[in-house]
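Before drawing any conclusions, I needed to go through one protein's amino acid sequence and its backbone structure tokens, quoted below without any editing.
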Amino acid sequence: MPLKKSSETQKLLNSVPEIIKKTFPIPGRFRSSLPSRIAELSRLLTNGRGERSLSYLSRPELLSAYLYYFLPWNLCRLCILLPGLDLNLAAGDRIVDLGSGPLTLASALWISRPDLHNIPLEITCIDRSAPALEAGKKFFAAIGGSGNWKINPVKEGVDFRKTGVTRNQKPAALVCAINLFNEVYENLPHNLNRGFDAKGLQQMAANSARIMHGFASPSASILTLEPGVPQSGRFISFLRNAFLELERPPKSPCPHNGDCPLSGAKKKWCHFSYDASNLWFGSAPEELKALSKAAGIPKERLVFSYLFTGSVSGNQAKSDSEKVRVISDAFPLPSDKSHAVKQGRYGCSAKGLVLLTGERSRIEKIASGDLATAGKDVRFLADNEIDAKSGAIIAEVL
């Protein structure tokens, strides 16, 4: 559902780069090296992952690069998503954020959900890096984080090789893991050419689901967000299956409780992409864009994969055969018999994978993440015609 622009969210996000500079000042003699440190951290988080330790945010130079670059970009991603989720939080509720780093989730909630500001909440932020947690407390205070929200930092690592968790604390109404699992599953056996072992990834997803489930109350929601890359998409698909086995059905993005149509797919994955200059709240901060360009990693799009699950039994999340979730960018299609130039987007539905087709002007009317309705926004072809290349059911955008 499209969201109205929020001047409050945009104003606070625009101020984030300046707040970071004032809260975490860099001495002048080191300021010029910030772009190169950001580029190095980016390398360690991507193709140099084998050189990175799980406690990398305890290193001052890497934490500084993270705060100036990755924190604000991650805030933008979360601010795209969080306002559209039915978090259903009430006074006194507890939120558990696993692998919270510098309190990214808590800060994004504060920035993007002003409707929650006056609701007393307890947010338990768990991370193995004490410096990251301490930096997060400073940043949250700097953006005006209210006393209505009690922040409880916990220095602790979570072992996702285990199959469960035992806690004597109050069960959470919301459990989150943001940009966590892509760092953890790097320790799984994998081949450079074939990727991660599917069984290992599936087992880790099952363990992860049980751990998050163990923190949650029966009526809680659970949110996982990962980078929008194929490997994360595969993990999210396995995680979805594991939560279904725990009787926690997906609330979003999936419009159904059936099998994931992308489970096992190698070249397609569920992900969502947004123009960094045309977000629902406005635009990513210009100063952040300039720093990204200086580091040699400019961002024109924000891409992520996510899963938001419902409560145990989850009767509120029944499959809807009339709904199609748009899960890809637009791409060109071969000309048809009329030689009309068409574009497509992939979608997910209770019928399976859907190929949404239409003229460019129509395809551009629907965006990544939109929830289309059959008969209103799209029309399935007669006899559920199948696309020969992808195996997807074809539907036309109206």
Confidence is low (pLDDT under 50) at residues 190-194. The longest strand covers residues 216-227. The CA atoms of residues 89 and 109 lie 12 Å apart.
